[in-house]
Amino acid sequence: MNIVNARLRGREGLFHIALDGSQIAAISEQPAMVSASAGDLDAANNLVVAPFVEPHIHLDATLTAGEPAWNMSGTLFEGIERWAERKALVTHEDTKTRAKKTIDMLVDHGIQHVRTHVDVTDPTLAALKAMIEVREETRHLIDLQIVAFPQEGIESYAGGRTLMEQAVALGADVVGGIPHFENTRDQGVSSIKFLMDLAERTGCLVDVHCDETDDPQSRFLEVLAEEARVRGMGERVTASHTTAMGSYDNAYCSKLFRLLKQSKINFISCPTESIHLQGRFDNYPKRRGLTRVAEIDRAGMNICFGQDSIVDPWYPLGNGNILRVLEAGLHICHMLGYEDLKRSLDLITDNSARTLHLGERYGVEVGRPANLLILSAPDDYEMIRTQGYALVSVRNGEVLMRRTPAQIERA
Ligand SMILES: [Zn+2]
Protein backbone atom coordinates (compact mmCIF):
# COMPACT_ATOMS: atom_id res chain seq x y z
CA MET A 1 0.00 0.00 0.00
CA ASN A 2 1.11 3.60 -0.69
CA ILE A 3 0.11 6.94 0.74
CA VAL A 4 0.27 9.74 -1.80
CA ASN A 5 0.06 13.55 -1.59
CA ALA A 6 1.29 13.59 2.01
CA ARG A 7 2.69 16.51 3.97
CA LEU A 8 5.30 15.70 6.62
CA ARG A 9 6.02 17.74 9.74
CA GLY A 10 9.17 19.84 9.50
CA ARG A 11 9.64 19.24 5.77
CA GLU A 12 8.60 21.23 2.70
CA GLY A 13 6.73 19.70 -0.23
CA LEU A 14 4.64 16.63 -0.97
CA PHE A 15 5.61 13.04 -0.27
CA HIS A 16 4.87 9.50 -1.43
CA ILE A 17 5.11 6.93 1.36
CA ALA A 18 5.42 3.26 0.38
CA LEU A 19 4.43 0.63 2.93
CA ASP A 20 5.72 -2.91 2.61
CA GLY A 21 3.71 -5.18 4.88
CA SER A 22 4.13 -3.87 8.41
CA GLN A 23 7.10 -1.58 7.60
CA ILE A 24 7.61 1.82 6.01
CA ALA A 25 9.62 0.88 2.89
CA ALA A 26 10.30 4.24 1.22
CA ILE A 27 9.55 7.96 1.49
CA SER A 28 10.08 9.99 -1.67
CA GLU A 29 9.41 13.56 -2.72
CA GLN A 30 6.53 14.10 -5.11
CA PRO A 31 6.92 16.98 -7.59
CA ALA A 32 3.14 17.56 -7.84
CA MET A 33 -0.24 16.24 -6.66
CA VAL A 34 -1.12 12.88 -8.23
CA SER A 35 -4.31 10.85 -8.35
CA ALA A 36 -4.23 7.84 -6.05
CA SER A 37 -4.24 4.35 -7.58
CA ALA A 38 -6.73 1.74 -6.41
CA GLY A 39 -5.75 0.44 -2.98
CA ASP A 40 -3.64 3.50 -2.16
CA LEU A 41 -4.53 6.20 0.35
CA ASP A 42 -4.76 9.85 -0.69
CA ALA A 43 -3.60 12.25 2.03
CA ALA A 44 -4.85 15.11 -0.20
CA ASN A 45 -2.16 17.60 0.86
CA ASN A 46 -2.69 16.85 4.55
CA LEU A 47 -0.26 15.80 7.27
CA VAL A 48 0.83 12.21 7.75
CA VAL A 49 2.20 11.66 11.26
CA ALA A 50 3.05 8.80 13.57
CA PRO A 51 0.07 7.76 15.72
CA PHE A 52 -1.04 9.88 18.66
CA VAL A 53 0.09 8.68 22.08
CA GLU A 54 -1.91 8.56 25.31
CA PRO A 55 0.86 8.63 27.95
CA HIS A 56 -1.28 8.88 31.10
CA ILE A 57 -4.67 7.30 31.62
CA HIS A 58 -6.38 5.08 34.21
CA LEU A 59 -8.17 2.44 32.11
CA ASP A 60 -9.23 0.47 35.21
CA ALA A 61 -11.38 3.42 36.38
CA THR A 62 -12.80 4.78 33.11
CA LEU A 63 -16.55 4.83 32.34
CA THR A 64 -17.62 4.61 35.99
CA ALA A 65 -18.81 8.18 36.67
CA GLY A 66 -22.22 8.20 38.37
CA GLU A 67 -21.94 4.56 39.49
CA PRO A 68 -23.37 4.42 42.06
CA ALA A 69 -23.15 8.19 42.70
CA TRP A 70 -21.83 11.27 40.88
CA ASN A 71 -19.02 13.42 42.25
CA MET A 72 -21.11 16.52 42.98
CA SER A 73 -18.35 18.80 44.32
CA GLY A 74 -15.88 17.94 41.57
CA THR A 75 -13.03 17.65 44.06
CA LEU A 76 -10.21 15.09 44.11
CA PHE A 77 -11.27 14.05 47.62
CA GLU A 78 -14.90 13.37 46.76
CA GLY A 79 -13.56 11.52 43.71
CA ILE A 80 -11.60 9.19 46.02
CA GLU A 81 -14.78 8.60 48.12
CA ARG A 82 -16.93 7.88 45.06
CA TRP A 83 -14.24 5.55 43.66
CA ALA A 84 -14.13 3.58 46.93
CA GLU A 85 -17.88 2.86 46.45
CA ARG A 86 -17.40 1.82 42.81
CA LYS A 87 -14.24 -0.17 43.56
CA ALA A 88 -16.32 -2.48 45.78
CA LEU A 89 -18.36 -3.44 42.69
CA VAL A 90 -15.42 -4.05 40.34
CA THR A 91 -15.09 -7.51 38.79
CA HIS A 92 -12.58 -8.99 36.36
CA GLU A 93 -15.03 -8.81 33.44
CA ASP A 94 -16.24 -5.32 34.40
CA THR A 95 -12.64 -4.01 34.28
CA LYS A 96 -11.93 -5.69 30.95
CA THR A 97 -15.18 -4.52 29.32
CA ARG A 98 -14.72 -0.88 30.33
CA ALA A 99 -11.02 -0.83 29.41
CA LYS A 100 -11.72 -2.28 25.95
CA LYS A 101 -14.56 0.16 25.33
CA THR A 102 -12.22 3.01 26.25
CA ILE A 103 -9.43 1.64 24.05
CA ASP A 104 -11.90 1.69 21.12
CA MET A 105 -12.56 5.38 21.88
CA LEU A 106 -8.80 6.07 21.85
CA VAL A 107 -8.34 4.15 18.57
CA ASP A 108 -11.18 6.17 17.01
CA HIS A 109 -9.07 9.27 17.61
CA GLY A 110 -5.80 7.95 16.17
CA ILE A 111 -4.10 6.75 19.36
CA GLN A 112 -2.01 3.57 19.05
CA HIS A 113 0.33 3.82 22.07
CA VAL A 114 -1.09 3.95 25.59
CA ARG A 115 0.39 3.99 29.11
CA THR A 116 -2.21 3.11 31.73
CA HIS A 117 -1.87 3.27 35.50
CA VAL A 118 -3.55 0.35 37.27
CA ASP A 119 -4.33 0.46 40.98
CA VAL A 120 -2.33 -2.27 42.76
CA THR A 121 -3.36 -1.35 46.32
CA ASP A 122 -5.65 -4.40 46.34
CA PRO A 123 -4.51 -7.67 47.94
CA THR A 124 -6.02 -9.65 45.01
CA LEU A 125 -4.43 -7.46 42.27
CA ALA A 126 -7.69 -8.06 40.37
CA ALA A 127 -7.54 -4.98 38.12
CA LEU A 128 -3.91 -5.67 37.23
CA LYS A 129 -4.64 -9.25 36.21
CA ALA A 130 -7.56 -8.06 34.06
CA MET A 131 -5.43 -5.37 32.38
CA ILE A 132 -2.63 -7.83 31.59
CA GLU A 133 -5.22 -9.86 29.64
CA VAL A 134 -6.46 -6.68 27.93
CA ARG A 135 -2.86 -5.85 26.91
CA GLU A 136 -2.65 -9.17 25.03
CA GLU A 137 -6.18 -9.08 23.60
CA THR A 138 -5.80 -5.56 22.13
CA ARG A 139 -2.33 -5.89 20.58
CA HIS A 140 -3.83 -5.47 17.09
CA LEU A 141 -5.16 -2.05 18.17
CA ILE A 142 -2.60 -0.49 20.51
CA ASP A 143 0.72 -1.00 22.29
CA LEU A 144 -0.17 -0.88 25.98
CA GLN A 145 2.23 -0.16 28.85
CA ILE A 146 0.92 -1.02 32.31
CA VAL A 147 2.05 0.97 35.36
CA ALA A 148 1.87 -0.67 38.79
CA PHE A 149 0.19 2.28 40.48
CA PRO A 150 -0.19 2.31 44.29
CA GLN A 151 -3.28 4.56 44.53
CA GLU A 152 -3.33 4.32 48.35
CA GLY A 153 0.45 4.46 48.82
CA ILE A 154 3.40 2.10 49.03
CA GLU A 155 4.43 2.77 52.67
CA SER A 156 0.99 3.87 53.95
CA TYR A 157 -0.90 0.83 52.63
CA ALA A 158 -0.59 -2.55 54.37
CA GLY A 159 1.65 -4.80 52.28
CA GLY A 160 2.24 -2.02 49.75
CA ARG A 161 5.85 -2.94 48.96
CA THR A 162 5.01 -6.61 48.42
CA LEU A 163 2.08 -5.74 46.15
CA MET A 164 4.36 -3.56 44.00
CA GLU A 165 6.89 -6.41 43.69
CA GLN A 166 4.11 -8.88 42.85
CA ALA A 167 2.68 -6.53 40.21
CA VAL A 168 6.07 -6.33 38.47
CA ALA A 169 6.47 -10.12 38.69
CA LEU A 170 3.02 -10.54 37.09
CA GLY A 171 4.07 -8.39 34.14
CA ALA A 172 3.68 -4.65 34.83
CA ASP A 173 5.95 -2.69 32.47
CA VAL A 174 6.37 0.44 34.58
CA VAL A 175 6.81 1.11 38.31
CA GLY A 176 4.58 3.88 39.71
CA GLY A 177 4.30 5.81 42.95
CA ILE A 178 2.36 8.52 44.78
CA PRO A 179 4.80 10.05 47.31
CA HIS A 180 2.72 13.16 48.13
CA PHE A 181 -0.15 10.90 49.27
CA GLU A 182 1.97 8.87 51.73
CA ASN A 183 1.24 9.67 55.39
CA THR A 184 4.50 11.48 56.08
CA ARG A 185 7.26 13.25 54.19
CA ASP A 186 9.70 10.48 55.25
CA GLN A 187 7.40 7.80 53.82
CA GLY A 188 7.17 9.75 50.57
CA VAL A 189 10.97 9.82 50.30
CA SER A 190 11.39 6.14 51.20
CA SER A 191 8.66 5.17 48.71
CA ILE A 192 10.66 6.82 45.93
CA LYS A 193 13.88 5.03 46.93
CA PHE A 194 11.98 1.75 47.07
CA LEU A 195 10.33 2.17 43.65
CA MET A 196 13.58 3.31 42.00
CA ASP A 197 15.37 0.25 43.43
CA LEU A 198 12.57 -1.99 42.12
CA ALA A 199 12.78 -0.46 38.64
CA GLU A 200 16.57 -0.62 38.53
CA ARG A 201 16.56 -4.27 39.62
CA THR A 202 13.86 -5.38 37.15
CA GLY A 203 14.57 -3.12 34.16
CA CYS A 204 11.11 -1.49 34.35
CA LEU A 205 10.44 2.11 33.35
CA VAL A 206 9.28 4.55 36.07
CA ASP A 207 6.25 6.89 36.08
CA VAL A 208 5.38 8.52 39.39
CA HIS A 209 2.28 10.58 40.26
CA CYS A 210 4.44 13.30 41.76
CA ASP A 211 3.29 16.33 43.76
CA GLU A 212 -0.28 16.28 42.38
CA THR A 213 -1.38 18.98 44.80
CA ASP A 214 -1.37 22.78 45.12
CA ASP A 215 0.76 22.49 48.27
CA PRO A 216 3.97 24.45 47.56
CA GLN A 217 5.71 22.37 50.25
CA SER A 218 5.16 19.14 48.31
CA ARG A 219 8.71 18.65 47.01
CA PHE A 220 9.09 15.02 46.01
CA LEU A 221 10.06 15.92 42.43
CA GLU A 222 13.54 16.89 43.64
CA VAL A 223 13.87 13.48 45.32
CA LEU A 224 12.76 11.59 42.20
CA ALA A 225 15.02 13.65 39.92
CA GLU A 226 18.06 13.20 42.18
CA GLU A 227 17.50 9.42 42.39
CA ALA A 228 17.24 9.33 38.58
CA ARG A 229 20.37 11.47 38.15
CA VAL A 230 22.54 9.44 40.52
CA ARG A 231 21.46 6.14 38.97
CA GLY A 232 21.71 7.43 35.37
CA MET A 233 18.09 6.37 34.76
CA GLY A 234 16.61 9.76 33.80
CA GLU A 235 15.47 8.95 30.27
CA ARG A 236 13.53 5.97 31.67
CA VAL A 237 11.84 8.02 34.41
CA THR A 238 8.73 10.21 34.19
CA ALA A 239 7.19 12.63 36.67
CA SER A 240 3.45 12.89 36.07
CA HIS A 241 1.40 15.96 37.09
CA THR A 242 3.98 17.86 39.28
CA THR A 243 1.18 20.42 39.74
CA ALA A 244 2.75 21.75 42.97
CA MET A 245 5.39 23.31 40.69
CA GLY A 246 2.69 25.80 39.69
CA SER A 247 2.77 26.95 43.33
CA TYR A 248 6.54 26.83 44.01
CA ASP A 249 8.23 30.19 44.43
CA ASN A 250 10.51 31.20 41.60
CA ALA A 251 13.75 31.12 43.62
CA TYR A 252 13.21 27.46 44.56
CA CYS A 253 12.04 26.59 41.06
CA SER A 254 15.12 28.11 39.47
CA LYS A 255 17.34 25.88 41.63
CA LEU A 256 15.09 22.88 40.96
CA PHE A 257 15.33 23.33 37.16
CA ARG A 258 19.13 22.90 37.34
CA LEU A 259 18.64 19.44 38.87
CA LEU A 260 15.74 18.54 36.55
CA LYS A 261 17.85 19.28 33.47
CA GLN A 262 20.77 17.23 34.80
CA SER A 263 18.45 14.34 35.63
CA LYS A 264 17.04 14.08 32.03
CA ILE A 265 13.64 12.88 33.34
CA ASN A 266 10.41 13.28 31.35
CA PHE A 267 7.23 15.13 32.35
CA ILE A 268 3.53 14.54 31.72
CA SER A 269 0.86 17.15 32.31
CA CYS A 270 -2.88 16.37 32.19
CA PRO A 271 -4.23 19.90 31.68
CA THR A 272 -7.99 19.23 31.61
CA GLU A 273 -7.86 17.05 34.73
CA SER A 274 -5.59 19.41 36.66
CA ILE A 275 -7.51 22.61 35.87
CA HIS A 276 -10.63 20.73 37.08
CA LEU A 277 -9.22 19.17 40.28
CA GLN A 278 -6.63 21.69 41.49
CA GLY A 279 -7.17 25.23 42.79
CA ARG A 280 -10.00 23.89 44.94
CA PHE A 281 -8.77 25.47 48.19
CA ASP A 282 -8.42 28.91 46.60
CA ASN A 283 -10.85 31.79 46.54
CA TYR A 284 -9.60 34.53 44.24
CA PRO A 285 -7.06 34.87 42.75
CA LYS A 286 -7.43 31.17 41.88
CA ARG A 287 -4.45 29.08 40.74
CA ARG A 288 -4.57 27.11 37.50
CA GLY A 289 -3.10 24.09 39.26
CA LEU A 290 -0.80 22.99 36.45
CA THR A 291 2.92 22.38 36.33
CA ARG A 292 5.14 24.86 34.44
CA VAL A 293 4.59 23.29 31.02
CA ALA A 294 5.90 26.12 28.83
CA GLU A 295 8.92 26.71 31.08
CA ILE A 296 9.86 23.00 31.12
CA ASP A 297 9.56 22.92 27.33
CA ARG A 298 11.57 26.14 26.86
CA ALA A 299 14.31 24.76 29.12
CA GLY A 300 14.77 21.93 26.62
CA MET A 301 13.22 19.23 28.79
CA ASN A 302 10.71 16.68 27.52
CA ILE A 303 7.03 17.22 28.34
CA CYS A 304 3.82 15.83 26.84
CA PHE A 305 0.06 15.89 27.49
CA GLY A 306 -2.27 13.10 28.69
CA GLN A 307 -6.02 12.70 29.32
CA ASP A 308 -5.76 11.00 32.76
CA SER A 309 -9.50 10.21 33.09
CA ILE A 310 -12.44 9.49 30.84
CA VAL A 311 -15.84 9.58 32.60
CA ASP A 312 -14.67 8.50 36.07
CA PRO A 313 -15.21 9.81 39.63
CA TRP A 314 -12.45 12.41 39.16
CA TYR A 315 -13.41 13.78 35.74
CA PRO A 316 -16.88 13.38 34.21
CA LEU A 317 -16.10 14.21 30.56
CA GLY A 318 -13.80 12.93 27.81
CA ASN A 319 -14.29 10.97 24.59
CA GLY A 320 -10.81 9.65 23.84
CA ASN A 321 -9.83 12.65 21.74
CA ILE A 322 -6.36 13.77 22.83
CA LEU A 323 -6.56 16.74 20.42
CA ARG A 324 -9.18 18.20 22.75
CA VAL A 325 -6.70 17.96 25.64
CA LEU A 326 -3.98 19.51 23.47
CA GLU A 327 -6.17 22.50 22.58
CA ALA A 328 -7.18 23.06 26.21
CA GLY A 329 -3.57 22.65 27.39
CA LEU A 330 -2.22 25.20 24.92
CA HIS A 331 -4.76 27.73 26.21
CA ILE A 332 -4.23 26.99 29.91
CA CYS A 333 -0.41 27.01 29.63
CA HIS A 334 -0.16 30.27 27.63
CA MET A 335 1.15 28.42 24.59
CA LEU A 336 -0.80 30.05 21.77
CA GLY A 337 2.25 31.94 20.48
CA TYR A 338 2.85 31.07 16.83
CA GLU A 339 6.16 29.31 17.55
CA ASP A 340 4.32 26.99 19.98
CA LEU A 341 1.35 26.45 17.65
CA LYS A 342 3.65 25.51 14.73
CA ARG A 343 5.01 22.52 16.69
CA SER A 344 2.08 21.85 18.99
CA LEU A 345 1.57 18.24 17.85
CA ASP A 346 4.94 17.42 19.50
CA LEU A 347 3.01 17.40 22.79
CA ILE A 348 0.88 14.40 21.74
CA THR A 349 3.31 12.63 19.36
CA ASP A 350 7.13 12.80 19.48
CA ASN A 351 7.48 14.07 23.07
CA SER A 352 5.06 11.40 24.29
CA ALA A 353 6.88 8.66 22.36
CA ARG A 354 10.12 9.74 24.04
CA THR A 355 8.40 9.57 27.45
CA LEU A 356 7.19 6.04 26.70
CA HIS A 357 10.70 5.15 25.53
CA LEU A 358 9.37 3.87 22.18
CA GLY A 359 12.66 4.49 20.34
CA GLU A 360 12.74 3.17 16.79
CA ARG A 361 9.29 1.59 17.12
CA TYR A 362 7.86 5.07 16.47
CA GLY A 363 8.11 7.68 13.71
CA VAL A 364 7.46 8.24 10.00
CA GLU A 365 10.85 6.95 8.82
CA VAL A 366 12.01 4.20 6.50
CA GLY A 367 12.39 0.87 8.32
CA ARG A 368 10.02 1.76 11.16
CA PRO A 369 6.62 0.12 11.73
CA ALA A 370 3.90 1.10 9.23
CA ASN A 371 1.85 2.79 11.94
CA LEU A 372 0.65 6.24 10.93
CA LEU A 373 -2.21 8.70 10.66
CA ILE A 374 -3.60 10.87 7.90
CA LEU A 375 -4.83 14.08 9.54
CA SER A 376 -7.43 16.58 8.29
CA ALA A 377 -5.07 19.58 7.96
CA PRO A 378 -1.73 20.37 6.29
CA ASP A 379 0.16 21.55 9.40
CA ASP A 380 0.07 21.75 13.21
CA TYR A 381 -1.39 25.26 13.29
CA GLU A 382 -4.32 24.36 11.03
CA MET A 383 -4.98 21.16 13.01
CA ILE A 384 -5.50 23.22 16.17
CA ARG A 385 -7.34 26.13 14.54
CA THR A 386 -9.83 23.93 12.67
CA GLN A 387 -10.21 21.44 15.55
CA GLY A 388 -9.05 18.79 13.11
CA TYR A 389 -9.21 14.99 13.31
CA ALA A 390 -7.29 11.86 12.49
CA LEU A 391 -9.05 10.79 9.27
CA VAL A 392 -7.27 7.47 8.77
CA SER A 393 -5.27 5.34 11.19
CA VAL A 394 -2.94 2.71 9.70
CA ARG A 395 -1.43 -0.02 11.91
CA ASN A 396 0.97 -2.70 10.69
CA GLY A 397 0.29 -1.52 7.14
CA GLU A 398 -3.49 -1.95 7.37
CA VAL A 399 -6.30 0.55 7.84
CA LEU A 400 -7.48 0.42 11.45
CA MET A 401 -9.90 3.36 11.42
CA ARG A 402 -11.35 5.68 8.81
CA ARG A 403 -13.39 8.78 9.65
CA THR A 404 -15.82 10.56 7.34
CA PRO A 405 -16.03 14.22 8.39
CA ALA A 406 -19.44 15.84 8.82
CA GLN A 407 -20.72 17.62 5.71
CA ILE A 408 -22.22 21.11 5.90
CA GLU A 409 -24.79 22.32 3.37
CA ARG A 410 -25.28 26.03 3.04
CA ALA A 411 -28.66 27.38 1.93
ZN1 LIG B 1 -3.21 9.78 37.01
TrEMBL record:
Cross-referenced InterPro entries: Amidohydro_3, Metal-dep_hydrolase_composite, Metal_Hydrolase, Metallo-hydrolase_Enzymes
Record keyword Metal-binding present: yes
Stretch forming the signal peptide: none
Keywords in alphabetical order: Hydrolase, Metal-binding
Pfam families reported in the protein's UniProt record: Amidohydro_3
Residue ranges of every copy of the Amidohydrolase domain listed in the record: 42-380
Classification via SUPFAM superfamilies: Composite domain of metallo-dependent hydrolases, Metallo-dependent hydrolases
Name of the protein this chain belongs to: Cytosine deaminase
